[in-house]
Design a protein that fits this description.
The complex is a heterotrimer. By secondary structure, chain A is of the alpha+beta class. Chain A is 23% helix and 33% strand. Chain C is built from 11 helices and no strands. Classes of the chains: A alpha+beta, B mainly alpha, C mainly alpha.
Chain lengths: 360, 302, 267
């Protein structure tokens, strides 16, 4: 496998409109997605993730930059000439064709023999467990079933890359969970590169090999789900993926002196200069509440406690008034035993406090 | 490289024009182009046996409004033309108002039925809309003519001794136009009432409005776009009506459409006919402009 | 006493007026149909049932001629109108609205906005010159005129259909290796078809019903059914016209029912 295997975008830029209405949807994004990878593009709506997907699919051409597939420039190839298929957000199943005809469409357009089309269709129907629905029309299917047909249709021509544009957003929670593991299974079975677009951080964390977080047309961070969650590159990534607390302070050697008082060790080294003002983040589940002072803990006052069922979110005020949220697992009684105004100490898990690079 | 996507966009636009061309050519020859030629004809001299002589003249336009006395050459307003114009506008307005008065309750009735009933009633309104105008006018003719159904019935019942002379009057034209153009009022009214949120009526009653107040203060203002479209859809064809006044109005009760035809037949004054057509077109244009203004204002209100 | 529940959407008198409107809308047409089977010639006094007016109308050479001419014009004009309207609808929908498209849209709908009598007069003037210049007197003029005013009627249902169509379907076809032509042939066209058929039927009915434009454009001896009927209406005995009207009515109702079922199916 050479280094160029897979999908690559080089300085891809896409601008819509001109003059005052000019919108930069994608701002010089470069990314390499490896062959056989389950890659997720994650970000809020309007961040450019769908635009990047459409450039890879060939539905649009970049204003500048190139798109490569296995080292070949495909930037201006029309979509029908690319070995790339898409599962659309709306599924886009042809309403005048049956399920089987929908699945066989791509192979037919490519001019495959009828027998071959039929056997692949059958294979695909089995793969997505829809054998009994072959002769139905899409309107006679439930949302989850339509989803499966859309998947089968996109997989049938055995593309090198499968693009999925928020395919689960129209499904209800239970079905969504089911389809998540279904998708993961299909990806492992077929070995096809999946590029998955979503705004749902949980979906991204549970399914992906790697995640690319996007905002305002730029790629902010690329990494495994664990890297993204535990070592967010900046304030946006930290807050978009999971909840987090931000604390400001002055950087020392492998430690930070917080504005709220106290000096705490850092989880990892940072590129920020010693002595500079920085922001650090810590996840709510990585803070413990203790009754008495201990090394590496800060005094705090309870301001509010919100019950969420499995856990409670307790809000605290530090000495300088900074708000910190701590997630506490609910005990059997459901009451975490903290009342407003109570003075406690917060102990940060060693190595959990991360300095955000963009603040340096 | 940015030119590449621009080129695609331009190519799409070019294809767009290419695809539209056959329709545009056909319309240019069969509708729009002739209108421009007609405008030119209104500035020519009438030929002795119809058609025109290619000499510039404003006489036709002059004659629309003013007539010259045959004997002493004095000028006076062209009463005949103005009477016909006025009759056309008056009858069209009356038709518009009356179709609204009966059309609104009908549209409301349809819109408040259960879905299946509503579809059926809507279909029943649509059938006359697409049915030959001539046939419908003819049907009215058979009802109101002197030996028609209405008179025969009333005579037999002894309610009248003489047939009512309805046909060949302005009133007959009014009845006929109301009858043939009613669906054009009901359909847009239905469309806007159908979109109307009935909870607003509940809110109106909840805030102590009476039925009449709810109608006047809540319903009518909200369905106004439908009222305006309906009125325009009835007014424009009424103004240009030809078949209905010809069948029900008789020779004396002409509307502008029939008077225009006359100039191309016995009148042998094509330029005058063309000028009158342009005037009719202008009135319609004004009505359309008013419509667009009102419709837009309605949008910004809602 | 009156224990009738208060209905929100009920307004006093509306129901009565609506029912009266429906009765008044259908009564004259119903009478016209009924008296086409009257054995007498009166349109008010029933003298017994007969079917004789139908064969008698058909035996009239003028009626037969006019019927055939009407059908030739209506079918030719509606097919032409539908084809060009489909092309124009493909060009003017489903993309960013440009000034050029708005212009096309206005031109296409122009026959709906201009009073028929004005178009008729304008066509008379225009075609008169061409008739003199070329000497051609055939049905071409009527077909051109009919096709032109049928365009908006064909265009509207096709446009509605295209606008209701999910654009991503075409993108999906391209994604699945369909060339632009294949996309049109296997996705766009089958999906537009119900709209095109509906447009064809509306155009056909519109052409078949036209009186005013035909009256002004036709050359001598080119009567269509409606212009023939118009000429007959002033006569005292019109039962033959009743029979023709009934047949035309039947045709219209059949076409409309089919149109209704076609357009409803998409929901």
């Amino acid at each position: 496998m050479s280094a160029q295997d897979g999908v690559e975008a080089r300085n891809a830029r896409k601008v819509y409109g001109t003059g005052q209405e000019k919108v930069v949807a994608l701002d010089n994004v470069s990314i390499v997605i490896k062959r056989g990878e389950f890659f997720t593009l994650l970000g809020p709506s309007g961040c450019g993730k769908t635009t990047l997907l459409r450039l890879i699919a060939g539905f649009e051409t970049p204003t500048s930059g190139t798109i490569l597939l296995d080292g070949t420039d495909i930037t201006y190839d029309p979509p029908n000439k690319r070995p790339v298929n898409t599962v659309f957000q709306s599924y886009a199943l042809f309403p005048h064709l049956t399920v089987a005809q929908n699945i066989g469409f791509g192979l037919e357009m490519r001019g495959h023999a009828k027998a071959e089309v039929d056997s692949t269709v059958e294979e695909m129907l089995a793969l997505v467990r829809m054998e009994s629905m072959a002769d139905r029309k899409p309107t006679q299917l439930s949302g989850g079933q339509q989803q499966r047909v859309a998947l089968a249709r996109a997989l049938a021509p055995q593309p090198k890359v499968l693009l999925l544009d928020e395919p689960l957003s129209a499904l209800d929670l239970k079905l969504r969970k089911e389809m998540q593991s279904e998708l993961k299974r299909l990806q492992l079975e077929t070995g096809i590169t999946f590029i998955f677009v979503t705004h749902d951080q949980e979906e991204a964390l549970t399914m992906s090999d790697r995640i690319g977080v996007m905002k305002s047309g730029s790629l902010l961070q690329v990494g495994s789900p664990r890297e993204i969650y535990t070592r967010p590159a900046d304030r946006f990534v930290a807050s978009f993926i999971g909840e987090t607390n931000f604390l400001t302070g002055v950087l020392g050697k492998d430690a930070i002196t917080l504005d709220a008082g106290g000096t705490l060790p850092l989880g990892a080294s940072t590129q920020a200069k010693s002595g500079s003002k920085v922001t650090a983040s810590i996840r709510p589940e990585q803070i413990r509440v203790i009754e008495t002072d201990a090394p590496g803990s800060l005094p705090a006052t309870v301001t509010e406690s919100v019950y969420f069922g499995t856990d409670s979110h307790c809000h605290f005020a530090l000495a300088d008034g900074t708000e910190v949220v701590v997630r506490l697992q609910s005990p059997a009684s459901g009451d975490v035993g903290l009342s407003r105004g109570q003075n406690v100490f917060l102990r940060f898990e060693p190595g959990a406090l991360m300095v955000l690079e963009d603040q340096a | 490289m940015s030119t590449d996507s621009d080129r695609l966009e331009r190519q799409r636009n070019r294809n767009g024009w290419l695809l539209s061309t056959p329709a545009l050519v056909l319309l240019a020859f069969g509708a729009t182009g002739p209108l421009l030629i007609m405008f030119v004809y209104s500035f020519l001299e009438p030929g002795k046996y119809g058609n025109v002589i290619w000499e510039f003249s404003t006489k036709a336009w002059f004659n629309v409004f003013v007539q010259r006395d045959i004997f002493d050459g004095t000028l006076s307003p062209a009463d005949a033309h103005l009477t016909i114009l006025w009759r056309s506008v008056k009858l069209s307005l009356m038709t518009t108002i009356f179709t609204f008065i009966v059309g609104f309750p009908t549209a409301w009735f349809i819109a408040t039925r259960p879905p299946r009933m509503r579809t059926l009633l809507l279909f029943l309104i649509t059938i006359p809309f697409w049915t030959n105008l001539l046939i419908r006018t003819f049907a009215i003719n058979q009802i109101i003519r002197n030996e028609g159904l209405l008179n025969t019935l009333l005579l037999k019942l002894g309610i009248i001794n003489e047939p009512l002379l309805i046909i060949y009057s302005d009133f007959a034209v009014f009845i006929g136009m109301t009858y043939v153009y009613l669906p054009l009022m009901v359909l847009p009214l239905f469309a806007s009432i159908d979109r109307f949120d009935m909870r607003l009526v509940e809110a109106g009653y909840d805030l102590y409005a009476s039925r009449w107040q709810v109608l006047k203060r809540v319903i009518v203002p909200i369905v106004k776009p439908g009222i305006i479209s309906g009125s325009i859809l009835v007014f424009i064809p009424s103004l240009g009506a030809y078949v209905t006044p010809r069948i029900l109005g008789g020779g004396r009760n002409m509307m502008i459409g029939n008077f225009i035809e006359l100039q191309f037949g016995q009148g042998r004054n094509w330029p005058l006919g063309a000028a009158l057509s342009v005037i009719l077109l202008l009135i319609v244009a004004v009505a359309l402009v008013v419509y667009v203004r009102f419709a837009n204002r309605g949008d910004s209100n809602v | 006493m009156f224990n009738r529940s208060f209905s929100i959407s009920r307004l006093p008198g509306f129901t009565t007026i609506a029912i009266l409107v429906f009765v008044m809308l259908y009564l004259p047409i119903a009478m016209l149909v009924v008296f086409s089977f009257n054995s007498g010639t009166s349109v008010a006094i029933w003298e017994g049932f007969t079917l004789e007016w139908y064969p008698r109308a058909w035996a009239n050479e003028q009626v037969k001629d006019a019927t055939i001419r009407s059908l030739i014009i209506a079918s030719t004009a509606s097919v032409i109108a539908t084809i060009v309207a489909t092309m124009a609808a493909l060009a003017t929908t489903r993309r960013k609205q440009t000034r050029g498209q708005t212009f096309v849209y206005i031109l296409i709908n122009q026959p709906l906005m201009v009073p028929e009598i004005v178009t008729a007069v304008a066509l008379l003037i225009f075609f008169a010159s061409i008739k003199v210049a070329t000497g051609y007197q055939g049905l071409g003029y009527l077909i051109t005129a009919h096709a032109a005013f049928c365009i908006p009627f064909a265009y509207l249902p096709i446009r509605a259909r295209l606008e209701g169509m999910d654009l991503t379907l075409e993108t999906a076809a391209a994604d699945l290796y369909a060339t632009p032509w294949q996309t049109f042939r296997y996705v766009t066209l089958p999906l537009v078809m119900p709209g095109a058929i509906a447009g064809l039927m509306l155009a056909f009915v519109t052409s078949l019903d036209d009186v005013v434009i035909t009256l002004f454009v036709k050359s001598a001896g080119q009567d269509t059914l409606p212009t023939y009927m118009l000429a007959q209406i002033r006569r005292a005995v019109t039962t033959e016209v009743n029979a023709i009207s009934t047949l035309l009515l039947g045709l219209t109702v059949i076409m409309l029912t089919a149109f209704f079922l076609l357009t409803r199916k998409r929901n």
